[in-house]
Amino acid sequence: MKPSAMKPLTISGFITAILLIALSIYVVEDLPAFGDENSPVNKYVKLFNVDADGLVESLNAGILPLQIKIKIEDMGFNKEENYPTLEEGNYRIEWSEKGSFEGGRLSEGGWDVLINEGEIFYNEPIRYYFIKEENRNLTVYRYNFPVRINELTEEETATINIVTAGLADYRGYDTMGEETVILTGAIGVILLLRRRGRL
């Protein structure tokens, strides 16, 4: 008995299944790992440089130098523009070993500036600035996460929502993964129904 040729529906279903498997692997492999220093959420935005002379000791003592504080406020990151204040007692400085990401390589550490935003239910300080000593200068960065919360949330998500803002860079991967699962399930149901002659 001659083996029957594959039906067009079977061939198209097989090809679709292969494409969906490949798409699923792509989504999993391309999605940045949680906490990845090079992922968009954890990147830094460079602000300015100041002379490091005499300022390192102040940072080590947990005090934000006046020169840095004034420059940050002059750039518009102040109370008048609804940014958390850098008043004494409202921020904390911690040494961070992880440092900043430069050219795909993790450089030496620096100082994290954590600011209390005055939230009622989540009263933990948030990392706003990162200060790094480079070539006898102190380079001040902003963390990308607060940039998205304060400036790009509504533009990117059309919703003022801190959770959505934090996941903004992962949203495309998440949506693609969901669509892959739904499409795979839909095709599976269609094929089963056609096989039973109900569709």
Number of strands: 7
The shape, in one word, is elongated
What is the strand arrangement across the widest sheet? Answer: 1-7-6-5-2
* Through-space gap between termini: 29 Å
Percent range for β-strand residues = 15-25%
User: What is the radius of gyration computed over CA atoms, rounded to a whole number of angstroms?
Assistant: 25 Å
Number of domains: 2
Largest sheet: 5 strands, antiparallel
Helix content: 40-55%
How many helices? The count is 6
Give the H and E element order. HEHHEEEEEEHHH
Query: Taking all residues together, what is the mean pLDDT?
Result: 72
Catalogue the unreliable spans: 100-106
| Estimated structural class | alpha+beta
If you had to describe this structure to a student in words, what would you say it looks like?
With 199 residues, this protein is of the alpha+beta class. Helix content is 41%, strand content 20%. The protein has helices at residues 8-30, 56-60, 66-74, 144-157, 162-166, 171-195; strands at residues 44-51, 91-96, 101-102, 105-106, 110-115, 126-134, 137-143. The strands form 2 sheets. It has a 5-stranded antiparallel beta sheet. A two-stranded antiparallel sheet has the order 3-4. Pfam families: MbhE. It comes from Methanothrix soehngenii. InterPro entries: MrpA_C/MbhE. Residues 155-195 form the MrpA C-terminal/MbhE domain.
